[in-house]
Every structure is written in structure tokens, then in C-alpha cells.
Amino acid sequence: MKLLSYESKGGVSYGAVSGEGVVDLGARIGKEFPTLRDLIAGNALDRAAGIVANGSPDVALAEIR
Question: In terms of pTM, does the model score above 0.85?
């Protein structure tokens, strides 16, 4: 799983690469883990992997920086 922090038209967030897009983990679990660093420190990588496996990309890789 490739994790990243990114910026898009919707603002700044973090997520995981899925195909040609990004599953926005910040939108899904950001209240509990506001940043990627918090997600990692909270030992929530398995939870994030489950979300990515069952979700579809929210934003295309071409639309982020």
C-alpha cells in the first residue's frame, strides 16, 4: 500500500494509491486520525488497508500534487 499526503481542488488530505487514483483516507477516517502521521502512530495501517481494499478512488492521480 502506497500512502501519500496530497493537495487537490478539494484541499489537503492523505490517502492511498489505488490504480490510477487515490482513496481519500482523510475523508473517511480523518476525524479519528487527522493526519497521515497520526494514522501511522495510531497503528491503523490494517484499518486503512481494509478501507482501500473495499473502496474506490476518490480523486485521480493526475488531479493531485
Answer: yes
